[in-house]
Structures are given as structure tokens and as C-alpha cells.
Amino acid sequence: MSNYALILAGGSGTRFWPLSRNAKPKQLLDLFGSGTMLRQAVNRISGLVPSENIFILTNHLQEAEVRRQIAELPAENIVAEPARRDTAPAVALGIGLIAARDPQANMIIIPSDSLILDDEAFRALANEALKLAAKEAALMTIGIRPTWACPSYGYIERAGKFSAEGLTHDCYEVVRFREKPDSETAARYLASGNFTWNAGMFIWNVAHVRRQLAAHAPELADFINRLTESEHPNSFITENFPTLTPISIDFALMEKADRVLNFEATFDWDDVGSWISVGKYLKTDTEQNAANTPLNALSSGNNIIFSDSGKRVALVGVDNLIVVDTGDALLVAHRDKADDIKKIVSQLPDELV
Amino acid sequence: MSNYALILAGGSGTRFWPLSRNAKPKQLLDLFGSGTMLRQAVNRISGLVPSENIFILTNHLQEAEVRRQIAELPAENIVAEPARRDTAPAVALGIGLIAARDPQANMIIIPSDSLILDDEAFRALANEALKLAAKEAALMTIGIRPTWACPSYGYIERAGKFSAEGLTHDCYEVVRFREKPDSETAARYLASGNFTWNAGMFIWNVAHVRRQLAAHAPELADFINRLTESEHPNSFITENFPTLTPISIDFALMEKADRVLNFEATFDWDDVGSWISVGKYLKTDTEQNAANTPLNALSSGNNIIFSDSGKRVALVGVDNLIVVDTGDALLVAHRDKADDIKKIVSQLPDELV
Asked: Dihedrals φ, ψ of B226, to 5°?
């Protein structure tokens, strides 16, 4: 039984502009001075899965940078989606690529754009989930115990504890998947103790997930079947991937699947959704000014400062700012307006996006 | 009768950090995209005084940059003060240099760090003052009609109007020089109508000012006498200039002089004392954001933005900021705290000052 990993790295977004650009989104940035998040994801998976069994899905805009950053993978393991089609088609593509290598593989899917510091704890849990996938007819997820009533994550509702011989991590039967709730509902989820955040991490046996797709998402099952049988898989992907219905894997499969389990993460996790999240991991002074660069602050607090050149920054009498400096653009935003950065980006000339 | 000009360009300061540095203070910066203030001062004087009659006083730290910017002057007309000794010694040095060329010269002294846009009006007034200096036994100044009760300028108190044949500009007899007043006193000066701002511009005949110095500031008169007689003026300056008492020309001479006249400026004038002053001359959007660089502002107003690279700047939800970006340092300050920039500068490593 061999283990495979699929890293989803085709995400895009504008919340880290001006550091992020279309061709270099969050997962390809070194936000913490410890390598890009994609680099960290690959390192996290290595040691669990051999390099030749790690696949990365990206897109044409980002492909060159992904190949540059992750040069140690076999070239054919980095695959650019020919069109943007949400997570279900991407997951199906990854299943097809892995099934073509080993129809009995166990595989783990992780996003490339969340921050996990405790790689050892991640690998211990993932390893146990992969072993369980080999013998248990279930789709497995990893959930994050909520620390606040966040309305911008999906939630997984769970019921009784699942137990199996040798299982050392907490694992639960899943009742259903819940979309992003309103704040009140999120508060109720938090209070109940029966919900975890959906971190977009999946573990399953390839043969089992293909049977589940055949039952619940036949378009995707058919795509995988034809991909594994194709003599020219690259042309097949180019021609057929764009025809798939854009839908999330939660909707297409997880909510309908016969049996889903939810491991509770024993490691830290942060989806790093904005510069405010980045600030939590930067060096911070006594006035809660977080910076990745030498900082002199006078009568200033609660600021987040990032410069990709490492230049000196001086603050005088300013609070609650996000300051991001790059070679060709500089952002100064109020912390409370971080969500509006995308509005600015929509006004910019193409060469700055 | 020949006309000479002395441009005082040895000033220093930290209010324009990070753009300004010890070796590149305000007068050597291109703040308005129209050349440095020293460049503009030289251009303003040219057409009034031939190039070979223009002298610039600087200091050793700034000398190389001054020579680079003003390459058209004879090399010997740019002189570095061997020590910092306030304005009276600097003025005496300039008088000595000019007197050595022409003991009967008429000369105008101007600072290099104030902004004047209407060069034609300046030259018309200066030309008339130089003509008057040739025949009238008086020291002449140019005063700026106050527009507000500014407590950080010196004031010149004047009495009755001076008239002479052919004089087309308003000119007054000076009663006395007043140091920087407190705010109440400044308000009284403004209300009286008898005060002008002292802009540090002087016009006189060299022989006349030397007689006045002999009477009121003999140390300086003696320095000038010996400089004009020296066979090795450079060595003489190096040895003797540092021994002069540091004192302002207002104290040393103007307040004691037998007769001082005050021309009222018919041109605009701004001493550009801070980034806030610079903001008045930059391109401004409908929300009063002033910038020298392409700007996208969202829910942001009353900001001053300067980047020496011309990079794009984006503002989101911020007001009343001063943002100054250079290759190796970035300042973000509240407008009301512009005076505290110097406190930050005192904490910085030498290579950034």
C-alpha cells in the first residue's frame, strides 16, 4: 500500500496585495521569513510521502513560479489546471493522476496556503489517517477545533466518537458539512462543541473514493476513469478538465458520501486570511507593532509592517495601520479596512496586479 | 559697478528624513519634481548676476553633491565652510570672497532652501535693490508680508516708507529686527501691519557693509580684511574661519546697523519647513491627498505621499498621514506629529542619517 499526497496550490486572491500578484498569490509568498507556504507544505508532506508521490496542482499563471520553488519534484508531478473550476474538479484531477500510478493508493489532500508550525504533530495524525484509510471504508477529514465563532470558515458537524484498534488520535463520525455560517450560527456551533473548522484536508483510499464518486458525482468519476485509461493524459486534461462543472468538493462529494470521519487536529493551524493574521507571526515590540523589518516606532502601536526589501521603517504617532512595501507599490491601510484592499486592486493597472 | 550673488547652502536638518540625509539636506532635494531648491535658487539668480559672479557656500559633507548639481559655476565659486559657525561668519566669508574680486561690488545674499515660484518678480525686485545699494548708504533686506501669525519666523519691524527716484517697489525704513515671537506677540505683529517675515535675503554694497561691520562687528570686518589680502585664501579660511564667534547676521550686524531698508516682496515665498509644506505643492486629489507619485486612495483624505522611486501608493481608510518612501527607509507619521520626526532620526544607525 503506497501513500500519495496532493497539494492544492492554484488559489488566487488579492488580500496580500501589493506583495501578492496574480502570478504570485499567498501560497507562493515568504510571509514569515521561513520559506513560502507552498515550500512549507511540501516540507511538511515530505517524510510522510516520498517526493515522487507528491503532486502539486497549480494553474498556468503560477506554474513557472511553483516549478522554480519546488524544483525537487519530478516535473510531471506539477500539473497546471487548464481552467479554474473550483475544488471538486481539482480533487478529481488529483485522484486521477494518482490512480493512474497506483489504483490502490492511499492519499492525503492538503491546501498549500494554511500555516502549520508543528509539522511533527501534523505528520503523526496524517500517518494514522492514511493507515485508517487503507482499511476503513470512509472518507476522512481533519478538523480544527474552533477558538472563536468565525463566520468565514466552513464547519463540520460531528456526532459520536469513532474508535478503532491502535487509533491514538481523536476521531469522530461526521453528521454533515455546514457552509460559512452567519455570526449567530457560528456562535452556536462554537458553544455546542460538536463542530470543527473545515481545513480542506482529506485522506482516503483512491479505490474507495472513486466508488463514492461513482455513486454521488458520476461526472467526476467518469473523468477519472477516462484519465486513468488515456494514452495522452496531458491532452486529455487540456480537453476535458475545462468541461467539468465548477463545484466545491464539499458540495459534490463530502455532503453526500456514505461515511465521513473527522480527525481533530492536534497541531496549530492558521489560514492566514489577511495581513492581520500575518502580524501574529512577525516580531512584535512592546506596543504591539509587528514587523518583518527593522522598526523605529514613536507613539505608535498595533501596526503591521511588511517590506519585501527589509528596509528600515519609522512610525511616528500612528496606530492600527497595515503598511506593505514592495519594489513597485506601497500600501497603507487601516487594520479595520483590510477587507477593502481588494477594492483598490480592482482599480490598478494590470502590471501591478 | 558689478553685481554678485551669495547663495547660502550649508543648512542641515532632519525634518525631511528619510528623503533628506546629512549629506543631502532640504536644499539638495527635488521635492517638487522641478529640480532641487538649490538648482532653482541658482536659476533664479542667473539672469540677474552672471554665473562667474555667483558664489555658493556649503560645507564639506554636502560639497560633492553641490558641485554635482551646480556644475556650471567656476569651481572656485563653490566654497565649503570648514566648520559650522551660524550665519554671520558665513556672510562675512561671502563678503570677503566677493570683495577680493571687486571691492566696489553690489551683492545679494539669498538662502537656498526657500521656495519662490515667480522668479521674474524676484529678479525685478532684486535688480532694483541692487541698483539702490549702489547709491544709498543702507543695508537692504527683503521682507515677506505675513499671512498668519507664525511663531517660527523672525520678524522685521518697519516704520515710514522709503522713497527714491525711480523706485517702483515698496520699501520701508526698518525700526528693528525681532526674534521668533510667541504666538500672542506674532498675532500682534500680524495685526499691526508694520512687520514682515525675515526671509534671510540681504542686498548691499560691499564697501558699505564692510564699513558697517568695522563699526559693529569688528571681528568679522577684520576677518574680511585679512581674507582679501591673503595670498592663500583657502588656507586662510581653513585656519581662521573656525575661530569666528558663532552668531547670526541679524544679531551681529542687522540689529546694530545704522540704516536698514526693507523691501516688501512682490513674489510668493515658502520656507518649506516640513512635509506639510511640501504637500501644498504636490498634485492633490478631491480628498486632499497630495502625492508626487501615482495614488489610489479609498476612504482616505488629507494625506501627504512622497516616494523617491515614483512607485504606486495605495491608501485604504487612512487620514492625516505623512508617508515618505526611499530605497532604504520608509516613514509613516501622523501630520500632527511631523515635528517628532527628528526624535526618530536621533535613534537611527548612522548609515540612515
From this structure: -70, -35
